[in-house]
Amino acid sequence: MIPHSRPTLGAEEAKAAAETILSGQIAHGPKVAEFEKRFADFLGLQRAVAVNSGTSALHLALLALGTKPGDEVIVPDYVCTALLNAVHYTGAIPVIADVSEADGNLDCQAALRLITPKTRAVIVPHMFGTPCAGITLFKERGIPVIEDCAQSVGAELAGGKVGTLGDLSIFSFYATKVMTCGEGGMVASNRPELTDTVADLCDYDNRDDYLPRYNYKMTDFQAAMGLVQLARLPDFIQRRREIAQRYNAGLKDLPLRLPSAQADRQPIHFRYIVRLANPESLLNHLRNHGISAAHPVFKPYQLLTKANDCPISLRLWHESLSLPIYPLLQDAEVDRVIAIIRGHILHA
Ligand SMILES: *Cc1c(COP(=O)(O)O)cnc(C)c1O
């Protein structure tokens, strides 16, 4: 069986977690502080604050921007429900924007048309490992941007790392993400007043004042794993790029739409997505041969909430299939996936 995704974990992560557990300091402590420092350095930002998930990171980023009940927050339709949840936690109203045909990222021009006096922020995810261009459009309009880098840690856009372009950025270390510590997240920014608020809100104990705070802390043994994964990230990205090239070469003559390269972006290939008219039949064929593929987004918001209609998001959802891609995937396995796809398409 070739799974759709798999964490890249080994003896180093196990050793780091075990040492932390045996140290007796397993809750939020010095390893978390070290992980935050290394992560901020990796991005070249002043501060990063570790939390227990990407969803918590989004929630606190919205609160740091002052998001209140009745405010509006613009989010794209073609993403996981974490964004919708985080907006609802604040009492704000999600305003759903369509995505761009080329890469499935937020259509920034369409999002600009949704701005009203109530718009508090826009959440811009860099989906599938591909940077979303156009963040400056919101900055020019004075709309705060939260970059959602849950799928794209280490990707670059015109020389800058994703996560350094907005007012705040968030990351996820869930098991299927590019780097993982089981569950976890990070909020990063160059604006100390924002990261101070995030750090204040994610820990409730021993305070002189009272306001509702959250227990969103990361643990030290998760941070110990995160430190190892961060050190390995360049190798992870390198291997993902090799696999993407292997798929490109093996599938390029088929009637499939492959991921298109864009000169100003260095994606990290969190997902390798092919587009075709009827992905269900290919999905079933792969499954019958022990290969797990998936919709890159489980369901767009419009199918879950009966909200706006976003025709491009719907079309991408109907036509897209995500193939296995992760550092532990062997060349022979990639070749097998390619061969099964070729057999299906050329003999259908
Ligand atoms: C996974 C993901 C999240 C949520 O992260 P969790 O750690 O699962 O809470 C948010 N945004 C995007 C784009 C994601 O892929």
Quickly list its features.
348 residues; alpha/beta; Aspartate Aminotransferase, domain 2; Aspartate Aminotransferase, domain 1; 7-stranded mixed β-sheet; 3-stranded antiparallel β-sheet; globular; binds pyridoxal-5'-phosphate
Q: Quick one: how many beta strands?
A: 12
Relative helix content: 40-55%
SSE topology string: HHEHEHEHEHEEEEEHHEEHHHEH
Round the Cα radius of gyration to an integer and report it.
20 Å
User: What overall geometry do the principal axes of the alpha carbons give?
Assistant: globular
Provide the structure class: alpha/beta
Listed once per kind, the bound small molecules are: pyridoxal-5'-phosphate
Largest sheet: 7 strands, mixed
Explain what this protein looks like in three dimensions.
This protein is α/β, with parallel strands linked by helices. The protein has two domains: 11-228, Type I PLP-dependent aspartate aminotransferase-like (Major domain) (Aspartate Aminotransferase, domain 2, 3-Layer(aba) Sandwich); 233-346, Aspartate Aminotransferase, domain 1 (Alpha-Beta Complex). Helices cover 40% and strands 14% of the residues. The chain has twelve helices and twelve strands. A seven-stranded mixed sheet has the order 1-9-8-5-4-2-3, sandwiched between helices. A three-stranded antiparallel sheet has the order 7-6-10, with no helix packed on it. It has a two-stranded antiparallel sheet with strand order 11-12. Strand 6 and strand 7 (160-161) form a beta hairpin. Helix 3 packs across helix 4, helix 3 (54-64) crosses helix 7 and helix 8 crosses helix 12. The longest helix is centred in the C-terminal third of the chain and has 32 residues, at 220-251. The chain is globular and about 70 Å long. 48% of the residues are buried. The model has no long low-confidence stretch (mean pLDDT 96). The structure holds pyridoxal-5'-phosphate.
